[in-house]
Amino acid sequence: MTHTLEKLFSNPASCEERVISIQTTLTACRALGPENSGQGEMLKTRHIAAWLTACGVSNLIHLDKADTRVESGLRPNLVALIPGRQKKTLWLFGHTDVVPPGDISAWSADPWQVRRDGDFLYGRGVEDNQQAIVSMLLLAEELNARQIVPDLSLGLVFMSDEETGSAYGLRHILSVAHDMFRADDLFIVPDAGSPCGDRIEISEKGQLWIQIHIKGVQCHASTPQKGHNAFLAASAMALACHEHLHAVFADVDELFDPPHSTFVPSKHEANVPNINTVPGEDVFFMDCRLLPQVVSEEVLAQTRNLAAVVEKQYGVHVDISVVQEQKASSTSASSRVVTALKDAVMQVYGVKARAVGIGGATVAAFLREKGFPAAVWSCIENTCHAPDERSSITSTINDARVFAHILMQAHV
Ligand SMILES: [Zn+2]
Question: Which of 21, 29, 227, 358 has the fewest Cβ atoms surrounding its Cβ within 10 A?
Fold first, then answer.
């Protein structure tokens, strides 16, 4: 087995060439979703399908979803299957869409044209999520070029729409073809990580976004006693939520950073346009990230209790509504995907990886929701969505090696 692994990626110069060439083509596709005024991922996915076909991968499944907002009329999802000795499959997921470059003047060069500086490639999408896509393609190419049948089967999923909700991407795939996956398969989403590869994300806090709408009575600001100031009441409500909710839901879980649930007043809507009016209405939002054991209904009940106090004190009415909710999701730290990843990361990168939880949300949550134990891992610079986004050529090849290790471990 070690012998087989050594054969893979044994020509670093040609791997490097391949990384640069694939990254250059993918970046130029400008795969922005329609929400970001783009034409979607079709061109990019066609390139991926063509490369897979060229290197001999014949089992390609298209799970596109209709979307009239883009010229092709489809948001493409592509699954490539490479049979191994076992039916058990290692699934790797890469998203083809990218986010807009943002302020162009913050970039050192054209974000859609890949630029190389030493070991780094620069451009929009090179890290998020093309590093994963390139690793996946390299792995498929190497297996076929060297005619290696891996121990586990390999499933490569190239999906749309990750940056704008996944309704046309992984959520669609799971709704039409979830029987493709099995609970004892291994699921890796290489879409987050650390620069030395030592973080394996296995858990995500629950997300609860709340809108708080205060209705008071508008009046002239020179006679505030004639009205009920909705902005003042909203301020009291924001402070009360911030202090009280952290105190009530004070559990600590060191898997996460920060290790507790968070309750953050974030967006605030404009109220009156002029200074000399007491606002009769005020709307703000709270972003809550909940440890897995915290029940969102209890958070809402506590928030309503606080609202009742504010209503009484300020003579206002407070409406509370949920804007978005995503339950917490976890994969066990002792699951096979995590132990196999730890082992492979040690072999390739020489570091001891540890399991962590995050407050953010990844598509791994959709997989976990369906009972598929997913881990999020890659060795990345964490420049996603930033100007001068970059990706290491060496890490791209080494990530592919990590996946190869897992693929060749019959005992997994
Ligand atoms: Zn991403």
Answer: 21
Total Cβ atoms within 10 A of residue 254: 8
Place of tokens 């209705």: 215
The last residue of a domain, from among 307, 326, 345: 326
Residues 225 and 354 in one domain: no
Q: Structure pTM?
A: 0.89
Of 109, 154, 110, 114, nearest in space to 130 by CA: 114
* 163 alpha carbon – ligand 1 mean position (Å): 7
Same domain, 140 and 159: yes
- 210 exposed, middle or buried (CB, 10 Å; 0-12, 13-18, 19+)? buried
Range of the domain at 243: 206-326
If asked whether residues 22 and 33 sit together in one domain, one would say yes
Ramachandran assignment for 350, one of left (phi > 0), alpha (psi -120 to 50 degrees), beta (any other) = left
pLDDT means per 10 residues, the chain with 412 residues, are 77 94 98 97 98 96 98 98 97 98 96 98 98 98 94 98 95 97 97 96 96 98 98 98 97 95 96 97 97 96 98 98 94 96 97 95 93 97 96 98 91 58
Strand ranges (DSSP E) for 291-376?
A: 317-326, 329-330, 354-358, 374-376
For residue 379, the CA-to-ligand 1 centroid distance in Å is 13
Task: Tell how far the Cα of 18 is from the centroid of ligand 1, in angstroms.
Answer: 22
Query: Do 238 and 190 share a structural domain?
Result: no
pLDDT of residue 360: 85
Q: Are residues 33 and 110 in the same domain?
A: yes
Q: Which active-site residues does the annotation give?
A: 97, 162
Omega before residue 100 within 30° of 0, cis: no
Q: 24 in a domain, yes or no?
A: yes
| pLDDT tens digits, one per residue of 130-144 | 999 999 999 999 999
In a domain, 412, yes or no: no
Q: How far is the CA of 407 from the centre of ligand 1 (A)?
A: 23
The per-residue DSSP string of 232-294 comes to: HHHHHHHHHHHHHHHHHS--B-TTBSSSB-EEEEEEE----SSTTEE-SEEEEEEEEEE-TT-
CATH number for the domain including 294?
3.30.70.360
The phi and psi torsions of 277 (rounded to 5 degrees) equal: -125, 130
Separation of CA 6 and ligand 1 centre (Å):
30
